[in-house]
Structure formats: C-alpha cells, structure tokens
Amino acid sequence: VHPNVSQGCQGGCATCSDYNGCLSCKPRLFFVLERIGMKQIGVCLSSCPSGYYGTRYPDINKCAKCKADCDTCFTRNFCTKCKSGFYLYSGKCLEKCPDGLEANNHTMECTSIVHCEASEWSPWSPCTKKGKTCGFKRGNEVRVREIVQHPSARGNPCPATSESRKCIVQRKRCQKEGKGKKNREEKRKKSDKEESKETRQESKGRAARRQNREQRENNNKTQPKKKKAPNKELNLAPVDTAH
C-alpha cells in the first residue's frame, strides 16, 4: 500500500488519501470527484448529486456529469430536468420547442397545444322583453353554452358562450298583479266557503240520521208487544134458500 493511502477512512471510503480524499468506496456507494478551488477531492455518496448520473461497474460505482444544459439526467444522453432557460422534450434540453408544441414555463417542458372546446348550445329561451313574457309583440330570446376545455397559451381562444336573436310572439295583455292577487283571494275564499257549507250540510245530515235512529230505538223500547189472536174456526149454519 502506498504510504499516502490509508485503510482507516471515514465517510464511506474504502481507501483514502490525506490529499485526494476518497480513492475507492465501500460497496453500493458511488464515487464522485468534487472540485474545491483548483483541487479535486474524492467522496463516496449513496446517490449521485444534482447534475450527475450514476453508473455501476463490477469494481467501482461512479457518478458522471450530465450535459451542460441538463440539471438532472438518467444517462448522459437522456435529461430529466433542464437548467433555467431550457425546455425539456424527449430527454433533451431545447431553447425553443418544436412546431406543434409550446413552452410550459411552469414545468419548463414542451407540451402539446390545447385548443378551447365548448359544449352544445342550449335550447332557445322563451321570448321576453325587459324581463317580461307578455305585453309586447317583438322581443328577444337567448341560448347559452359552457366551456368544457380551456385553451393553453397558444391554443385557439374560446368562442362566445351566449347568443341573442329577435323573436315575435302573439301579443297578450299582462294581468295586473293587484287584480290577479285579488282574484286569487276571492277564489280561495269562495272555495273555503263552499267547502265549509258542504261540511255543515254533511254534519247536519249525520245528526238527523242519528236522531231518527235513536227515536226508533226508544219507540221500540216503550211500545208493548201485540199478542197474536188465536185462530177460531167459524161455524156457519146452512142458509135456507127455499123461502
């Protein structure tokens, strides 16, 4: 063993040097060189830091550096997150997204363009004028629809969600609110009155029937029972018709 190589290392190092730090790592740890000023120090880590990707070999596990425009990567040719100013697309970091795609500044990725989508129109509303449906001949009717998919930054904008058109109806007079209310009150009172009259007549009829039934029962109790007359055979003498 070289005099500058020590076997009693710390921090996951298998072998180390006082000047260069870790020279080799314990199993399953990754070896990476960190620059401190003009000097590079070897360290052993359980996972590679940002800007590096890990490769495993039979004798050593190493952390290799990603491309300059890549913040994190799976391999040198496949980036998973780009640095500021670049947009991720299919593992690559681009300054401008390809045609048919747009830059998403929130995720810093190139995504598909989304166009606006609207639902079907609703049926036309009743013909109205100033909020009323009577007292006019020409009015307006409207229909509406909803937005079911909002567009992305470069997507087609949403269309109008309401339409209005002129309409013609058969003119009819509006019933005055006071008169209509009065008529409704009168009808209600008349109905209540007729219902009360029918109820009273029905009560009187039940009372009369009950009184007649009680009177018949009392008469049957006070009247003596008639005795049946015995059957007598009449003896009629023969009439002499010779005189």
Automatic annotation (TrEMBL):
Which keywords does this chain's UniProt record carry? Disulfide bond, Glycoprotein, Heparin-binding, Repeat, Secreted, Sensory transduction, Signal, Wnt signaling pathway
Q: Does the keyword Glycoprotein apply?
A: yes
Q: Which SUPFAM superfamilies match?
A: Growth factor receptor domain, TSP-1 type 1 repeat
- Molecular function (Gene Ontology), one example: heparin binding
Region described as Disordered: spans on this chain: 169-243
Which PROSITE patterns did the record assign? TSP1
The protein in question is named R-spondin-3
For whether the record's keyword set contains Lyase, the answer is no
Q: Which organism is it from?
A: Chordeiles acutipennis (Lesser nighthawk)
Biased composition regions of type Basic and acidic residues, renumbered to the chain? 175-219
Q: What is its main location?
A: secreted
Q: How does it assemble?
A: Interacts with the extracellular domain of FZD8 and LRP6. It however does not form a ternary complex with FZD8 and LRP6. Interacts with WNT1. Binds heparin. Interacts with LGR4, LGR5 and LGR6.
The UniProt entry's GO CC annotations, sorted and at most eight, read: extracellular region
Family membership, please give it.
Belongs to the R-spondin family.
Q: Where in the cell is it found?
A: Secreted
Domain R-spondin Fu-CRD, chain residue ranges per copy: 11-110
| GO terms classed as biological process | positive regulation of non-canonical Wnt signaling pathway; Wnt signaling pathway
Q: Which InterPro entries does the entry mention?
A: Furin_repeat, Growth_fac_rcpt_cys_sf, R-spondin, Rspo_Fu-CRD_dom, TSP1_rpt, TSP1_rpt_sf, TSP1_spondin_dom
User: Where's the Spondin-like TSP1 domain?
Assistant: 116-170
